[in-house]
Amino acid sequence: MQKLALQHAWQAKQRDPQRTVLADATSSEGWIAAPVPGTIYEALLAANQIPDPFDGLNEFDVQWVAEVDWLYRCDFELSAEQASQPAALDCAGLDTIATVWLNGQELFSSDNMFVPQRAVVSNQLQAGNNQLLIEFRSALKHGHTLQAVMGQLGVWNGDPSRVYLRKAQYHYGWDWGPTLLTAGPWMPVTLELGATRLSDLACPITVADDCATADFVVTATVADAATDTAVLIQLWNPAGELIAEQHQAVSAGNVQHTISVDQPSLWWPHGYGAQNRYRLMVSVFAGQTQLDQRELQLGVRRVRLVQEPLRDEAGETFLFEINNVPMFCGGANWIPADLLTNRISNETYRRLLQAAVDSHMIMIRIWGGGIYEVDHFYDLCDELGLLVWQDFMFACGMYPAHSEFLASVEAEASAQVQRLRHHPSIVLWCGNNEDYQIAQTFNAYDHSFQGDFTQTSFPAREIYERLLPKVCATYDPTTLYWPGSPYGGADVYDKTRGDRHTWDVWHSAMAPYQDYPKYEGRFVSEFGMESSAALQTLLSVLPTDQRYPQSRVVEHHNKSEGGARRLAVYLNDTLRFENTLESYVYASQFMQAEALAVAYRGWRRRWAGPGRYAVAGALVWQLNDCWPVISWAIIDSALRNKPAIYSIGRELAPISAGLQRSKAQIEAWVVNGTLKSANASISITGYDLQGRLLFEQNYSHELAANQANPITSFELADPDQTVVGMQVLIDGAVVARASSWPEPFKYLPAYNPQISITRLADDWLEISSQRPAKGVWLQAGDAVHWSDNLLDLLPNQAQRIQARGLGQQPIALKWLHWDQNESIEHRA
């Protein structure tokens, strides 16, 4: 089979409603070059026909794009031999209300951007020039038409008509992103020449309970197979050795073969073992001629979602067990990294996911209001050892369930599950994001009802509890399914079962972030605190007269409802800072880092060993951004790390230290996240704000494996003036640190902590201070990669970090209540 990628010579224009589609296609007026795969926004930007919608208030000036229809056309040449072959047109994704013509003949229409479309075009092709034409009608207007007929449904975020369309829901605007309703061939368009092809390939892997054996069940489907068609199945182990080969004739278009492997090399999340992958190759032959071929990278892993009663408290666990090892799943939620997803490079995907790995995260949740990500994303997760919690694309809405909608959803889910099921990183399919939550808010959810969901006020239960689990059981029976996130059965806010979204901090009652540990769940799949993007990122979209925290443009770049006010409350409760953009950026990022550290630290403490895994995961909202914005992200849209990513990294490290202050009482613990116990020396010290040592306590402790270990508790004589530090040493090396400061931080005096930096070999630095220093933030340009940052320094406790790429560049420092006129001491 020959595959011709139709990705060049595409043009687009605004549709002229006064003409027929085919007449409009022949017009020479208005056409501009258009990237494919791509969207109309990218074409208009390249042609300088719209301003950058991310700059200033330009978002308002480009909304007309969603209100009109668009035409795309592509001319391509075929030889007489090519034109005479059996052929099919494959459109991997059309966004969203589309009709396709080839050489003036209508092929098909599509209304779901997540469903690939394929049409046989053998009789439509011709030697010489051929023209492909696609009309994209306004998704916004189409949704409004459907809504007018069937009624407005409840939503959080965006135009309510969005729930009637199978289009990425964040295109309609979200509380972290602008409104850009894209249109266009957003996935590849391919012409396939040749009849016989490998139309489907599945290889579910059944792993024995003890992981000692694995069965690779290979099923291949061959379309238009002739009588002499055969399939060659080959399997290579992770070392690259061919370990199985089977040549088999095709019978009724299908081939099935099982390969059993003893003592398989397992695929593990990073930090627990290697990311071993087997390579499966299936080739289709007619005689000696190869007609088609497909390769899959497969990982052998046993996954369980353990929901068992806890020993000493109500409820049950919600923990992931990989290869028989229970794991605390620290991680993050993922949103599309751009509104125009075709601009996201493979390098951007790698940098973002590598940053998660560097912060000791092991799970990424792909949120249900975005897109099913590109293949490269999942390939990277497989390679890097990141578990994937995969939502289906429903978010924050009361979705319909009429027959046409259900059919479209089934086609979507079937296509996406079949595309992605071979990835070892995907460990959970999840029905939706917060749809049970919004239904419960509207008093539309009755967990006890099990009749015809489509006739209730929450009809989408038909999707989440019947349609999607059926699709997953059919096409990916070895992967777990969960109805929604959050979901706790009868009550989505239940702290004792299922997963929970903890928005009691920031949303809801705006609880103090210090109270995060109180708002736990058995698995906290969302929580977060806002902060600004990096100063350079924010400045890139702010006119010079708008560069202050309360400007209209700054507040426009905070999409959370009441976001500027909420952030101001948390900042006022926490810090004092000058009313400059630079001070605002540091203060909001500092506060976010502190808040998220409190959450991870408190919840990971509850990972207390077998029978007591009371909290088994925490996924911060959110890892990344899609434009320059004040949001919950911990990496901004320019890929600049916010301080929170470092504070999270310390809390999720294989061994982490914890201190909890309650008035004058200090509690200390150490989490040993490794699978081996360790003998540790633990030092706890107290300093006053002048740098005087008040006390020192030393302990020897055997840290039990894979759990939190309580160390000690004690009272402080003068809590308002005492900074407590903790160091954990194994074999004489410091492997974890923690500190506890008097709060709120705004009451602490401003002073120069007298910080010193010594440059060592290979871009290593040793940093120390003579007085306690809080929130020390080091900067030296975007090319420098810090092994740690936003440091808390205590006297006589120098810290070593690496700054890859630093060389002799100067280092800029900020710390809590820093004065720009204060200096630091540098040593060679």
From TrEMBL:
Single GO MF descriptor: beta-mannosidase activity
Source superkingdom: Bacteria
Gene3D superfamilies per the UniProt record, alphabetical: Galactose-binding domain-like (2.60.120.260), Glycosidases (3.20.20.80), Immunoglobulins (2.60.40.10)
Residue ranges annotated for the Beta-mannosidase-like galactose-binding domain, each copy included: 19-186
Domain Mannosidase Ig/CBM-like: 665-747
Oligomer status and interactors: Homodimer.
Protein name as annotated: Beta-mannosidase B
